[in-house]
Amino acid sequence: MRRNWLHKGLLVLLGCALMAGCTSGTAQEQGQKSRFKIMFSDESYFYQEYGDLYTISHPDVEIEVVSMNSLINYSDTKSFDHAKAFSDFVDKEMPDIVLLSSSNGDYQKFVEDGKLMELDSLIQRDKYDLDTFYSGMVDVLKEEGDGKLYGLSPTFSPSAVLYNADLFAKYGIEVPHDGMTWKEILDLARRFPTEGDKDTRVYGFGMLYGDSLESLASEIAGYQGLQMLSPSTMKLTLNSDSWVQAYKLAKDALDSNAIYKPDSEGDSSGTVREYYQNQLFVNGRVAMTVENFSTLRNLKQAQDSLEDYKPFQIGVAAGPVDPADPESSRGIFFNDIFAIRANSPNADAAWDFIKYVNGEECAKVKSKSISQSLLSRMGYSEEYKGIDLEPFYKLKPKLDRESRRVWDMIPKSFYPKYQPILNRELQLVQANKKSIEEALQTVQKESQVVLDMLLKEEAEKSGTSDSAKTETSAAGTTKSFGEAPSDSSI
How far is CA 389 from the centre of its chain? Predict the structure, then answer.
């Protein structure tokens, strides 16, 4: 759907007056109309986030936005193959600028397939400043590109340990520090009192959806890079020392009664007050949580929405970290990576846009309204409503290149059969009728039978042998949990 470049004429005139000389690109220098085609989740959202701001200083650029809603609408169907659908979408629409993500493997896959233009030569040609970027973003995108840069992301989404400094002061407990592991966080949570009724008491730790043994153990395992399947053998790896330890850590914390277990999953229906009742950290009754930057926005919204809201001092600590790699975090993602499609006929215009939205001028404006993500261009979002944001920038992102291979290798029909087995065994654990070791051993044994059967059925349908199916999957897929280490290497 094409947006006329004459829209918002008043803003254009203002932009020309205030920002003359900011435009660039060969076509503009020659007096020609410059254009590019960009893919984005939604056209109106694109203009809200980037388009309107860009057209102020680039009035002669014509932008065509192709919506990705079709991918989103079909993503929940059983037969949906994200990697294939995404690749087919790009091949069909042929956008000049491709929107990619680090969390699902799209960026790495497109680099490996030669579908992107490297940016290093353009950066060198224009002497484009990378020094003031969050170095973790540049480093990880270069790592994904085998040493070359194929995209830039103006924002990133980091998680951290958020804490209620007033509660720590009240109970005389030292506040969290940067680089804490999950064990240190949950041990610290147990130092808070556990008495009182559920409507008034304080909890040492709580996440909005951390209300089960499975979800908390999965959070712990995720930050340590544990995976449930080895792609080289197609064997489940839940019955390993590391998975057992993750579940034990979660169970001990939950049994201590220091962890908030919500009655619901934060349903947004009902009144504003009812919505925030399930967010105990936001309303001051949980001492610590692990959430992303958007939680700070929720705190501000609660304060603005509730007349009797009692604000409290917020602290931020970098983490959690894997004890084996305390300088990095697996809780950092880049979900708006802008890249230029290989062989794009409008590469100059596309690069001009990418330069702008990742540049200092755009960062300066965006810093006034940051909401869900932080700016990759450093020096413009150092604090939010008086809260120091520096800890969000301290750790390096940790993206396991192998960890995204398993999702596409496991048939979707596996999960509805796997989940009841896991639920049954964890219920026995919580009732103290089985040890965690026994439960995970049973889950792995029974689930492996299911997985082997489904893989065999898929192989028969495709006319390939089980071994060929496994070899093809291990070599050709890109997005998954990733490979878990064996017991001997954990």
Answer: 18
